[in-house]
Q: What sequence folds into this?
């Protein structure tokens, strides 16, 4: 908004200064003509002319220089439009003059002076518009040096206005050397025509036309002003003559030179435009390929973009992309060619034993055009094939086809070869991204599984006057399948279980929940431990996949007889501390894990045992995460250490024993980031 | 990480896993055994002397073949286990289900028994 107001203000000031110029100059001319004493100083019109110049200079600075939205053609258009307005205006005056005919008015010095000043004002406006526009064109892709030179040129021109104010005495040599200096600088600056290369074919044609008309306007206004100035000076020399004005003259020379330069450069650039456009398109295509990883939904669309872009960059007529899906299976993506046709060509080349990329024996780009000649019924006469690599593996081949014979040159081979490389990278990135997403999903799943697993463990453990239980379970980032539980069967009988499901993740949590179901349904019936295992095995065989199993230990505590009956199905042997002998032993009974034997013979692989307990005895149930916990040097916690740790705290309560054990474990592994599951259930008899 | 070598001796396929077999590397073991079976070997020896650790998933691989081998009348003998690895097999009761012997000589004898 502010710039708009300023530009309007400047325009108004411009008009006012022009009117002031008109009146002062006419007054000077009039009074000198009549030999009257001048009412105003003779140097005033010159100053006002300079004011007019400066105002318009700033006006165009705001209108053209500061407007970032203008492109090259827009700039030329602005100059052309200003020139058009100026020329049309001037022509209308001429037309009116012609219609009025040769009256005394035409010979009147004041009239000629007015016409001259109108034309001068229009020309200056046109020149300044062109000057500002050319500045932007020259400074496109500027260097530091160029920027300095331009600033020097511009400021020198502005300073030269002082000289034109007729305050200084006029000297021919100074005028000539200044004029020569500005022309040389202008010529040097005119060598900057980088913008031309960025025009496309159409824009170049438009620019040529606009420049041609601009040059025409320049010639016209120069001619009009010169003739008018001459006719004024014929009568009176004290007027505001622009011919001696260094600023206007230099501006004129510069604008004309640059217009002509631009015109010629664009003209000679026309034939090579298609090459530049092609290069530009390649860059854009490259970008498309690399961007496709982020935006595209599937690998397939990456292939399609690859096909499309490579075809358009080498002007091919058709293409296909053959990708290996597995060892023997491949898929063909086609572009402007039917799959049948593509397969025909592939088979044709195969049948003629053409060794090249298409048969995977070569990893180099090959031009196989000469072999197509012998294929009847195909319109294609040129073929070019490229291998595509992802992580060093050849994943497929890109083939490009042309109807012209010898349609691919070396340059094209290079381009497509780069495309093929880029496509390989894109596909690789796409796959990596996919993998990352997959693992993210997997992690989310694990989180859910972990919550499920936690909820499967009992919140409360059974208590009794004869024993007390403490349990602990901590799992690593990955979900484990450790399970423990207690169930009171009657006033005198309680069953305990500890189990470890093989594998990790959601499946483990799922099997753990099955184990819980089995425990709660079977244990209620107060069955014998070996019978429990046989039945549990039978039930689990149906739901465990091959290779999965569950190791478990089941205990039946009878408080009336002070006896424990138990069975061990492949689980870590229980550590039993006998207070009477002050000794801890592992109860290594025979027993195969659940789910391993899938027929009825399982009962042969399991046995039940029993022992009597005494007050002070401790039973430590645990999973292999504990004995296999790794120390700082990679050594295992082991069975001996476990029993040692138990003996250290044999007199304490189960909760304290457990805390001690866990602390020892963390101390041993040197970190709280465990890499397996730690699960224990400690029972102390009273 | 595990690296698995295979070589043939006296008509038997000797599979040697080197390193540790955990959940992820057990797939490799599974593939190797499946390949050996696919190639028509009826006698498979597993040299466990370079096996440092085996997780439950790795044991599951051996287990999953027990029935198939019984049906097809194939023989698999494991030998050369370190004490630690042997303990893992023992706890799970796999000594009852698999043929596990001390060394290669014994294993060859066992595998050629009818």
A:
């Amino acid at each position: 908004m502010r710039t708009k107001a300023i530009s309007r203000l400047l325009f108004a000031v411009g008009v006012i200064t022009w009117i002031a110029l008109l009146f002062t100059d006419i007054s000077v001319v009039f009074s000198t003509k009549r030999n009257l004493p001048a009412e105003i100083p003779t140097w005033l019109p010159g100053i006002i002319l300079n004011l007019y110049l400066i105002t318009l200079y700033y006006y165009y600075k705001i209108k053209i220089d500061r407007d970032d939205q203008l492109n090259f053609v827009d700039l030329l258009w602005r100059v052309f439009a200003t020139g058009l307005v100026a020329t049309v205006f001037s022509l209308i005056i001429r037309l009116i003059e012609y219609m009025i005919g040769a009256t005394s008015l035409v010979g009147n010095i004041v009239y000629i002076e007015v016409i001259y000043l109108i034309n001068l004002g229009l020309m200056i406006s046109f020149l300044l518009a062109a000057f500002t526009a050319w500045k932007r064109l020259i400074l496109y892709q500027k260097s530091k040096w160029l920027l300095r030179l331009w600033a020097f040129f511009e400021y020198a021109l502005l300073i030269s206005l002082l000289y034109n104010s007729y305050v200084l005495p006029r000297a021919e040599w100074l005028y000539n050397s200044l004029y020569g200096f500005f022309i040389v600088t202008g010529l040097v600056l005119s060598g900057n025509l980088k913008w031309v290369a960025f025009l496309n074919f159409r824009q170049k044609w438009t620019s040529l036309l606009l420049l041609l008309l601009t040059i025409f306007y320049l010639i016209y206004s120069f001619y009009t002003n010169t003739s008018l100035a001459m006719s004024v000076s014929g009568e009176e020399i004290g007027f505001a003559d622009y011919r001696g004005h260094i600023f206007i003259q230099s501006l004129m020379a510069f604008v004309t030179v640059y217009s002509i330069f631009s015109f010629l450069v664009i003209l000679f650039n026309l034939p090579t435009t298609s090459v530049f456009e092609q290069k530009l398109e390649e860059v854009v295509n490259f970008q498309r390929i690399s961007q496709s990883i982020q935006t595209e939904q599937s690998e397939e669309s990456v292939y399609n973009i690859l096909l499309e872009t490579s075809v358009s960059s080498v002007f091919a007529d058709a293409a296909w992309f053959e990708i290996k899906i597995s060892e023997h299976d491949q898929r063909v993506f086609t572009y402007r060619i039917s799959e049948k046709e593509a397969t025909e060509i592939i088979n044709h080349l195969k049948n003629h034993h053409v060794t090249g990329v298409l048969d995977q024996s070569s990893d180099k780009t090959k031009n196989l055009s000469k072999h197509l000649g012998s294929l009847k019924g195909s319109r294609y006469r040129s073929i070019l094939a490229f291998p595509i690599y992802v992580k060093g593996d050849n994943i497929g081949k890109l083939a490009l086809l042309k109807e012209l014979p010898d349609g691919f040159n070396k340059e094209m081979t290079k381009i497509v070869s780069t495309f093929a490389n880029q496509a390989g990278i894109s596909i690789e990135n796409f796959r990596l991204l996919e993998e990352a997403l997959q693992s993210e999903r997997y992690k989310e799943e694990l989180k859910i599984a972990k919550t499920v697993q936690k909820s499967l463990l009992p919140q409360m453990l059974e208590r009794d006057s004869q024993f007390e239980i403490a349990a602990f379970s901590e799992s690593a980032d990955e979900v484990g399948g450790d399970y423990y539980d207690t169930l009171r069967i009657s006033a005198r009988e309680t069953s305990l279980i500890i189990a470890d499901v093989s594998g990790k993740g959601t499946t483990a949590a799922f099997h753990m929940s099955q184990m819980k179901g089995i425990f709660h349904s079977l244990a209620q019936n107060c069955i014998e431990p070996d019978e429990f295992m046989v039945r549990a095995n039978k039930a689990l065989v149906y739901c465990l996949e091959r290779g999965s199993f569950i190791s478990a230990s089941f205990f039946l505590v009878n408080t009336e007889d002070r006896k424990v009956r138990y069975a061990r199905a492949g689980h870590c042997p229980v550590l039993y501390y006998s207070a009477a002998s002050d000794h801890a032993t592992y109860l290594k009974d025979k027993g195969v894990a659940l789910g391993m034997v899938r027929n009825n013979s399982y009962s042969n692989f399991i046995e039940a045992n029993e022992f009597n307990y005494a007050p002070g005895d401790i039973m430590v149930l645990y999973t292999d995460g504990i004995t296999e916990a790794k120390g700082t040097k990679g050594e295992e916690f082991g069975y001996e250490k476990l029993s040692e740790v138990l003996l250290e705290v044999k007199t304490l309560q189960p909760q304290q024993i457990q805390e001690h054990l866990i602390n020892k474990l963390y101390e041993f592994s040197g970190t709280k980031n465990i890499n397996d599951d730690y699960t224990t259930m400690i029972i102390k008899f009273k | 990480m595990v690296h698995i070598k295979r070589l043939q001796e006296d008509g038997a396929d000797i599979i040697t896993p080197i390193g540790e077999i955990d959940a992820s590397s057990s797939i490799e073991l599974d593939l190797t055994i499946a390949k050996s079976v696919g190639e028509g070997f009826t006698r498979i020896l597993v040299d466990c002397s370079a096996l440092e650790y085996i997780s439950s998933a790795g044991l599951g691989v051996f287990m999953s073949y027990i029935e198939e081998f019984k049906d097809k009348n194939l023989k698999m003998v494991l030998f050369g286990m370190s004490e630690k690895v042997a303990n893992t097999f023992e706890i799970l009761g796999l000594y009852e289900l698999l043929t596990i012997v001390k060394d290669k000589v014994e294993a060859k004898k066992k595998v050629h028994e009818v």
Notes: The beta strands of chain B are 2-9, 12-21, 43-47, 51-54, 75-79, 99-101. The mean pLDDT of chain B is 87.
